[in-house]
Amino acid sequence: MFQFPSCSHGLRTGICEVSKLVLINVAPTLPDIQVQSVASFCSTVLGTAVRIPCEVLKQRLQAGLFDNVGEAIIGTWQQDGLKGFFRGTGATLCREVPFYVAGTGLYEESKKLAQHVLGRELEAWETIVVGALSGGLAAVTTTPFDVMKTRMMTAPQGRSITMSMVAFSILRREGPLGLFKGAVPRFFWIAPLGAMNFAGYELARKALNKSEAAAS
Q1: What is the pLDDT of residues 139-154, one digit of tens each?
Q2: According to CATH, what is the number of the domain 4-206?
Q3: Could you give the CA distance from residue 202 to residue 82 in angstroms, rounded to a whole number?
Q4: Are 107 and 134 in contact (CB under 8 A)?
Q5: Is 141 exposed, middle or buried (0-12, 13-18, 19+ CB in 10 A)?
Q6: Hey, where are the domains in the chain?
Q7: What is the C-alpha separation between 40 and 20, in angstroms, rounded?
Q8: What is the pTM of this model?
Q9: How does it sit in the membrane (predicted)?
Q10: Rounded CA separation 188/182 (Å)
Q11: Which of 124, 48, 57, 127 is nearest to 85 (CA)?
Q12: C-alpha torsion 77→83→86→91, nearest 10
């Protein structure tokens, strides 16, 4: 079950590529940064919606609310019904959409800047570093939504809870820094994923294109 999120990432990547192709054909004069942003938005919303139920179960298991997956599924259904599997959807989307949209835009612009400064195409390792830094910085800026998402998903079941309730509770009890708990480990955890998401896919695609060109 918990390998399912990787499927959602694959779905997100596929939707992103299709969205870019559609936008390029429908609006060929649209700037690259806008094409990347719109495609990232569409793919992130759909990919995240698919992943949220697994995320809810994972958080509740890690918080010790249940002992196993089966118990988590039954308990969530009995206490909250179907909507229980989508608790924290708003906070998750508020985390994921800015992360991928801002991360993709930051990656593309940072890569162009690095190429301009160096006066050449980036080496593979340089592209990976840019991807890692872009992912890490995007992760830090979206940490408040990650904190709220976790609090919502692990809140006592059977009780309605909203993002504003969680946000005000954190600010009142822990102050503004409470919204950035775990920002540093999140940076180092997400940076490698940023390298894979932003740079790894692009490098793999370039290698595939070169192989196809050589074969033809």
Answers
A1: 899 899 889 988 888 8
A2: 1.50.40.10
A3: 38
A4: yes
A5: middle
A6: 4-206
A7: 9
A8: 0.59
A9: Multi-pass membrane protein
A10: 10
A11: 57
A12: -130
Q: Give CA–CA dist 105/98, Å, rounded.
A: 10
Distance CA 182, CA 140 (A): 9
| pLDDT single digits (tens) 111-130 | 889 999 999 988 888 888 99
Show the tokens assigned to 158. 């059977």
Residue type, 194: G
SS (H, E, C) 31-58: CHHHHHHHHHHHHHHHHHHHHHHHHHHH
134 and 102 in contact (C-beta within 8 Å)? no
Question: Encoding tokens for residue 79?
Answer: 């206490």
Q: What H or E segment, with its residue span, contains residue 191?
A: helix 183-194
Lookup: tokens for 53:
């139920």
Please determine, for residue 189, whether its predicted confidence score (pLDDT) is greater than 60. yes
What tokens does 139 get?
């992760």
What is the four-CA torsion angle of 206, 212, 215, 216, rounded to 10 degrees?
-120
Give CA separation, 119 vs 32, 97, 111, 206, in Å.
20, 32, 12, 20
Tally of helices (H runs) and strands (E runs) in the chain: 9, 0
Burial 99-130 (b: 16+ CB within 10 A, else e): bbbbbbbbbbebbeebeeeeeeebeeebbbbb
Q: Which residues contact 42 (CB under 8 A, 6 or more apart)?
A: 15, 16, 19
CA 40 from centroid of its chain's CA atoms: 10
